[in-house]
Write a structure and sequence with these properties.
Length: 272
């Protein structure tokens, strides 16, 4: 007699792969939905990209499971392994934004060079991200220092300045005007990166004046910003001037509610 096996049944020699896919698909779907939703809510581009990559991987895993159900075990295994090998490096390229703690000067205070000092000073700089409160971070840092300090050491912490982090909506007309200016001068769509949102004046302009601050950078990644060998290309310096002109021109053509104000004349940006 011929074994009439339904087309949707799993092959007897593929239980491990089937169990793996049965576990992997819900994990991929839940991770993709939660990560993408969080990125949309908090305007986090890296989270959205991560969610989309995981969602694509989950779709491929579903296709692999469908192949397995139809008895195509080799193709299903190859598709699963290939997707895992591709998704891993892609996720490694996506760099999320994290808070940063920088220890600037670390000094030992003493009267003689050849003596061990009984006093040390350090300056801590915290770069916060949205939804972090400076007062809460300060309280946590004070509690941590008090917990880890040895009984024979007296630790004190003095706050010089506190400011809230700022996040500007990328859909704001001013931000779109900046993107248009970059595209006109540099010939490419700018990459959105979160930088400068911890500058105290930026958050104060937003909080007190309700005025968004557009932060436009023109340095290259290899310019060594704030480093001892910091440099800046003269070509980018000239392009930065033109980009600033193009930004003001583009912003001037945009009303407060985002509608374009038609007027004659355009800034000619040639030669770079």
């Amino acid at each position: 007699m011929t074994d009439q096996r339904p087309s949707h049944s799993l092959p007897d020699d593929a239980p491990q792969l089937a169990q793996f896919l049965r576990w992997l698909i819900p994990v991929a779907v839940v991770s993709a939905v939660s990560t993408t939703a969080g990125g949309v809510v908090y305007h986090e581009q890296s989270s959205i990209a991560t969610g989309l990559v995981v969602a694509a991987a989950g779709t491929v895993f579903m296709a692999a499971r469908l192949l397995l159900r139809t008895g195509r075990q080799v193709e299903s295994f190859a598709l699963t392994v290939g997707t895992i090998l591709v998704v891993g490096p892609l996720l490694a390229l996506i760099k999320p934004i994290y808070p940063v703690l920088t220890i600037l000067p670390l000094l030992a205070v003493g009267l003689a060079v050849s003596m061990l000092s009984g006093r040390a000073l350090a300056k801590l700089s915290f770069r916060l991200v949205p939804d972090q409160e400076p007062a809460e971070i300060e309280r946590l840092v004070r509690r941590f220092i008090a917990r880890v300090a040895p009984p024979t050491v007296r630790a004190t912490l003095r706050t010089h300045i506190r400011s809230r982090p700022a996040l500007i909506d990328r859909k704001h007309p001013a931000m779109q005007a900046a993107a248009t200016a970059y595209r006109r001068v540099f010939g490419r769509v700018p990459r959105w990166v979160r930088s400068g949102g911890s500058i105290p004046a930026v958050s104060e302009f937003t909080r007190v004046l309700d005025v968004p601050t557009v932060l436009m950078g023109f340095a290259s990644p290899g310019d060594g910003l704030h480093g001892p060998n910091e440099k800046f290309s003269l070509k980018n310096f000239q392009r930065g001037i033109l980009c600033s002109v193009a930004f003001l021109e583009s912003l001037g053509r945009t009303s407060r509610n985002g509608r374009v104000i038609e007027r004659a004349g355009q800034v000619v940006l040639n030669g770079y």
